[in-house]
């Protein structure tokens, strides 16, 4: 799908509460095999107007749709107010999912820099700040693993700044840890766990912990733990 064709499109998506709601797609932020993410201006909805992100994808797997619906309910109930009984998920805020022109749309809050860009640009970061970031990016994984879910694509590019914290994004590869057979060779090659590199299909949440360790190394040292050309499995360890 050529996502650039959607720039400047107007998505009219009325609800009972906001019968004149629409979204003007102003910029293609990123795209890949799982869809395209657009910056959009929301009109006649909430704070009017406001910037949002809309991810558009032709096909959405049932497990991703189920996860997003549950996440929306959780965030609406426990993260939109002052409920201190529940820890924040530190996942990007998802407002709702809807369909447009036979595409699935995910409406989300706007984020800023990715963790990858942040540590690449801020080469003078003090170790105290680097350690703080490492603690911070543990929260979304803790939340997912408490729900017996595996993210499977933990990498610096999938954490983005929202306000003063980093939140986890991109839920297209999420799977239940109860699933007996899981897809082989998923996620970012540089931070893939040995089980995935060995084509195992019975891995657990521990593959996320391995990937998180790779991210820790990159945050703390300023360089990737492993070097490998894209789609090449001959790695060089940076120690």
From TrEMBL:
Domain Protein kinase: 23-239
PROSITE patterns: PROTEIN_KINASE_DOM (PS50011), PROTEIN_KINASE_ST (PS00108)
Example GO molecular function: protein serine/threonine kinase activity
InterPro entries: Kinase-like_dom_sf, Prot_kinase_dom, Ser/Thr_kinase_AS
Pfam families the UniProt entry points to: Pkinase
Protein name in UniProt: Protein kinase domain-containing protein
């Amino acid at each position: 799908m050529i996502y650039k064709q959607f720039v400047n499109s107007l998505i009219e998506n009325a609800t009972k509460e906001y019968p004149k709601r629409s979204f003007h797609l102003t910029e293609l932020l990123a795209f890949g095999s799982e869809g395209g993410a657009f910056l959009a201006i929301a009109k006649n909805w909430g704070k009017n107007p406001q910037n949002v992100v809309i991810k558009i994808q032709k096909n959405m797997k049932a497990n991703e749709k189920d996860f997003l619906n549950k996440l929306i309910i959780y965030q609406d109930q426990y993260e939109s107010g002052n409920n201190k009984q529940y820890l924040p998920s530190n996942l990007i805020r998802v407002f709702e999912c809807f369909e447009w022109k036979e595409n699935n749309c995910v409406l989300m809050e706007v984020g800023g820099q990715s963790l990858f860009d942040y540590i690449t640009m801020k080469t003078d970061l003090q170790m105290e700040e680097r350690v703080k970031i490492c603690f911070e990016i543990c929260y979304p994984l803790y939340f997912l693993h408490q729900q017996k879910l595996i993210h499977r694509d933990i990498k610096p590019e999938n954490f983005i700044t929202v306000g003063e914290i980093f939140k986890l994004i991109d839920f297209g590869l999420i799977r239940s840890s109860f699933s007996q057979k899981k897809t082989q060779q998923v996620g970012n090659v540089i931070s893939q766990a040995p089980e995935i590199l060995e084509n195992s299909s019975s891995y657990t949440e521990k593959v996320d912990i391995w990937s998180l360790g790779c991210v820790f190394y990159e945050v703390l040292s300023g360089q990737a733990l492993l070097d490998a050309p894209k789609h090449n499995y001959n790695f060089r360890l940076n120690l």
